[in-house]
Design brief:
Belongs to the Rieske iron-sulfur protein family. It contains 7 helices and 13 strands. The protein is an alpha+beta fold and 349 residues long. The strands form 4 sheets. Strands 4-5-6-7 form a 4-stranded antiparallel β-sheet.
Length: 349
């Protein structure tokens, strides 16, 4: 495809009717610039009542944003997450709705303002060098001032107040949760330890029934928690740290462990908390002995000390040392020997 000059015009001549677009055997004359179509004024442009109504609608949308922010603040203090799933669900729902209305109000108000109150005349300008002349730059500043004047924000006191109020209050939805952490418990050492301890029985999640080694067949996977979890001061927090995946392999398939004697007759136990960003690792492939994290596909080899074989995780899943008691129940030899989870304050990854 090429553009060739016709009728004696030199390249670069912009006479639209004298340039032809040639493709193979076909020649198509370049069509003239159609320009802008006739401008159709909006109702708010010709009807003062409609203009005032549109302004009130924009103010109402900004007011919706303000109410959303206030609702977020009230929910933050009146509906703390608590220790139960129901209280956490209620708190998150209230905070989410408050944040949604705070953002939605600002967004809809800005769009409605632009579509109904600001200048809607189409404009076009030719491309020019990246750095405009001083005269053009001065004209651009003048255009910006004209735009501010055209929006009539200076003459619309209620609208301006609603805009400023909604934008001023909205940052509370971001700052308040951060400020609220001041004065909270910053003892990070408690994250180094879980409820697992010597002779603590492994129980099935969520029933809490102790499990015997004989109950675990080769190739099976069991989700376990420490015995007595429900009696902990904060059971949900403790469960989030202590959840473990129990897998039984053929002892001949075990290549290595993180500690000598940490498994029992092919049964190994690893933290379910992915060492990448903390998602639950729970997808087990029996033939390869691989554990997959569904969030970012980090893959761990259970037969080789849960070492990382693929994905963004940087370290193996921590292994829980286990054995059996006199009755054949699986019990922990100790807590994990390193902090569970993705990262830690004292650890460089």
């Amino acid at each position: 495809m090429s553009i060739t000059p016709e009728h004696g015009h030199e390249p670069g001549d912009t006479a639209g009717s004298d340039l032809a677009l040639r493709e193979g055997e076909n020649t198509v004359e370049k069509f003239p610039n159609p320009g802008f179509g006739p401008h159709r004024p909006r109702r708010a442009d010709v009807d003062p009542a409609a203009n005032k109504r549109a302004e009130r609608q924009v103010v109402a949308l900004f007011a919706l944003s303000i109410l959303g922010t206030i609702g977020f603040v009230v929910a933050y203090f009146a509906l703390p997450p608590g220790e139960t799933v129901a209280s956490m669900r209620t708190s998150n729902l209230a905070l989410g709705l408050g944040l949604a209305f705070a953002l939605l109000g600002i967004g809809l108000a800005a769009v409605h303002w632009a579509k109904s109150l600001m200048n809607d005349h189409e404009k076009a300008e030719d491309r020019h060098a990246q750095r405009s002349s001083d005269q053009v730059r001065a004209e651009a500043v003048a255009v910006l001032k004209d735009g501010a004047q055209d929006s009539a924000i200076g003459r619309r006191g209620v609208l301006k107040g609603a805009l400023v109020s909604s934008l001023a209050l909205f940052p509370l939805t971001i700052a308040l949760p951060l400020i609220g952490e001041v004065g909270e418990d910053w003892n990070v050492s408690k994250f180094k330890r879980t409820l697992w301890a010597k002779n603590k029985k492994l129980t099935i999640d969520p029933t809490g029934r102790p499990i015997k080694a004989a109950d675990v067949t080769i190739g099976s996977v069991v989700h376990v928690i420490p015995e007595g979890l429900e009696e902990a001061e904060a059971p949900l927090d403790e469960k989030a740290k202590a959840v473990v995946l129990l897998v039984r392999l053929d002892p001949r398939d075990i290549k290595s462990e993180q500690g000598e004697g940490w498994s029992y007759d092919g049964i190994v136990a690893f933290s379910k908390i992915c060492t990448h960003v903390g998602c639950p690792v729970a997808l087990y492939e029996q033939q390869t002995h691989h554990l997959l994290c569904p969030c970012h596909q980090s893959t761990f080899d259970v037969a080789d000390g849960a070492k990382v074989v693929f994905g963004p995780a940087k370290r193996p899943l921590p292994q829980l040392p286990i054995t059996v008691d006199d009755e054949g129940y699986l019990v922990a030899q100790s807590d994990f020997h390193e902090p569970i989870g993705p990262s830690f304050w004292e650890r460089l990854r």
